[in-house]
Amino acid sequence: MSEKHKVTVTVNGKEHSLEVEPRQLLVHALRDELGLTGTHIGCDTSQCGACTVQMDGKAVKSCTTLTVQAQGRSVTTVEGLGDMSRLHAVQEGFWEKHGLQCGFCTPGVMMTAASLLEENPHPSEQEIREGLEGVICRCTGYQNIVRAIQYAADKSERSSEEVVTARTGSDK
Ligand code: FES
Ligand code: FES
Fold first, then answer.
1. In this predicted structure, what is the pLDDT of residue 169?
2. Ligand 2 pocket, mutate which of 140, 142, 145 (most atoms under 8 A from CB)
3. Residue 155 to residue 112: CA distance in whole angstroms
4. DSSP letters along 53-122, please?
5. Which residues of the chain have pLDDT under 50?
6. pLDDT (0 to 100) of residue 158
7. pLDDT tens for residues 17-66?
8. CA 86, CA 3: separation in Å to the nearest integer?
9. In principle, which of 3, 24, 76, 145 could form an S-S bond with 20, CB 3.0–4.6 Å?
């Protein structure tokens, strides 16, 4: 058996110390060691995107990321994106625009979309479709997923306008 490595990683804001084999994949650490089963395994070969999480804010495929590569990093899974009392804008978009179908790909799509919007808060429809190229949904034409992400982008825009209005108001 290969020697284990100690890895300290922050997942959804909570620090964890894990003893892992050097070959262990991050998706297995998340699912099997931490019980975060919202991150799914579809292809295991970096093609479908079902396993997408954020590492230091960037979307990564956890089926082709080693747990040891997460040493000292901050990982966010779909469980850390939002919750029922405070949905992430992308989650709200899926709710409002019926982006959810069978749901298997949805966590990976949401994590990809959240990263896309962090990099480009006002994407065009074309940019959204290009941003989704690394995730495969087997049961849809993507139209409602694209609408859900447009909703999330519009919502972020509305929120920043409200902040500006509130600031302007308080300056008076
Ligand atoms: S399971 Fe990772 S990309 Fe498909
Ligand atoms: S919602 Fe079914 S695979 Fe995407």
1. 59
2. 140
3. 17
4. EEETTEEEEGGGSBGGGGTT-EEE-GGGT-BTTB--HHHHHHHHTT--SS-SSHHHHHHHHHHHHHH-SS
5. 170-172
6. 74
7. 999 999 999 999 999 999 999 999 999 999 999 999 999 999 999 999 99
8. 42
9. 24
Angle at 131 between CA 128 and CA 132, to 5 degrees: 90
Q: Is the CB of 142 under 6 A from ligand 2?
A: no
The closest-lying atom of ligand 1 relative to the alpha carbon of residue 44 is 1
Pocket of ligand 1 (CB under 6 A): 41-44, 46-51, 61, 63
Predicted pLDDT at 168: 61
Long-range Cβ pairs for the range 152-159 (8 Å, 24+): 152/88, 152/89, 152/90, 152/92, 152/93, 152/113, 152/117, 153/89, 153/117, 153/121, 153/122, 153/123, 155/89, 155/92, 155/93, 156/89, 156/117, 156/121, 157/121, 157/122, 159/89
> Are 9 and 71 in contact, with CB atoms under 8 Å apart?
yes
